[in-house]
Design goal:
There is one protein chain. It contains six helices and ten strands; from the N terminus they run E-E-E-H-E-H-H-E-H-E-E-E-E-H-E-H. By secondary structure, the protein is an alpha/beta fold. The strands form four sheets. The protein has a four-stranded mixed beta sheet with strand order 5-9-6-10. A two-stranded parallel sheet has the order 1-4. The protein has a two-stranded antiparallel ribbon with strand order 2-3. Helix 1 runs parallel beside helix 2.
Length: about 230
Amino acid sequence: MIPARGGSKGIPRKNLREVGGRPLIAWTIEQALAAEADLHVLVSTDDEEIADVARAAGADVPWLRPAELAVDTAATEPTVEHAIDQVSAASGVEPEAVLLLQATSPIRLPGTLDRAVTQFRDTGVDSLIGVIPRSPFFWWASDPPRADYDPDHRQRRQDMRPEQLRYYENGSLYLTRTPIYREHHNRIGGRIGLFVMSQVEGIDIDTLADLHLADAYLSHPEWITA
């Protein structure tokens, strides 16, 4: 499921902005359609233009999202639960799980979604969170300035061991069993797993600077490597 409301404030009409030569939302739709896993690629939107663009890219848009689920303060989880209800009512079968993909994270390497589905099924977790590795060091508080590490024993990033790293939730994907939404009303719950993604897959478009960065990468696919 790809949520895409029409009323983005930070970057107006963000989901339709041209990035790398196509509408932003088209990248995520095409990645989902290209996966070998059996995915029902569905877009939830309140906007007719976004719906038309999503259908043209190959996604299923069987309804428009209710207005109350498309306001600035609306959380994502009620939108997912609404989609689960709609799909279940139409098919008579509740989905096993929901792969939530954010259109604002348009860079995913070939095979990423299939790798996520495989890890989800092989490990038996209830929710899988897309993350990218980050150094836990070099963070500072500002008042007064103080380091969260020992400056007298500053470690090179290249020398850090895997167990020293921390992982940043990049918002690109969440894969969650449907009962977790039903019981906890949350995309994260039960037994949780981390799905490690490439640094380049961590681009999340919140600002114009992010938009230009994503445009640069997607306009030069040779730059995008694991």
